[in-house]
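Each lists chain and fold; for instance:
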Amino acid sequence: MKTLCRIGMLMLCAGTARAEIVDNFESYQLGTVPGGIWEDARHYVNGSTHTGDSVGVIQTTDAFGNPTQAVQILDHLGTSGGLVSRVEHTHIQHLEVDVRFDQFADGNVPNWMGAVGFYQENDGADLNSLPQAMVWASRNGRFRLFVHNTDEQGSSAETYGLGNSRWSLDTWYRISLEADTINGSFNVQIVDLASGNLLLNATREVNDWDPTFGQYNLVSMNDGEYGDPLGSIANMASFDNVNYTPTPGSAILMLGGGVMLTRRRR
């Protein structure tokens, strides 16, 4: 009964599933969790240690030094924080987010400072145990792909390397993740926004893929500190210019070795 009540609450909070998302966070009040389609990821974490909001809208600068509003994971040490939005599941799903890594926690593994991708909501008790596909920044300075292709009781989880490109603090990256949810194929493209350089373009195929656990209906940007010892410094990351589309095409901005950068409307 408790689980059913929790699911009902989340459905009311998250609202109607969106077929498409385009959000640059300019319309939200500074210091608040973005409203409308967004919900604080702490509400999807069992036993969240965040006593208040885990994210807030900030005034900052983009990759070119221009003023912009973004969403930042706050300086809270503990369970996952971030943003979640409900979307409509389709065969091909494409998510693109600008990400800046602001602070790296000092706790032991597991510990991730920023992750972008998809989840499949079920009756599981925690966001991190749901079926998922997430691009994340590992503590060794590289980008990796994590795919959990089972329910929370299963162990079919794999971490895939994406090459030798390294991330740095205080640098804006555009992370694009496209999922073929029928065949278990994932394409990751990452661009250094300031230089326009395509850092990686990698496709990974999941062996023994079960499409039952690829019915992604949530998009999220989040972090997490679960190591032992936990440490004393929290992860912090900022997110901007979210684009979600249920089919490939115009949302894929990569052109050869560079990137077509969208201009922010003022």
About this structure: Confidence is low (pLDDT under 50) at residues 1-15, 249-266. The radius of gyration is 17 Å. Residues 38 and 85 are 5 Å apart (CA to CA). Helices lie at 2-14.
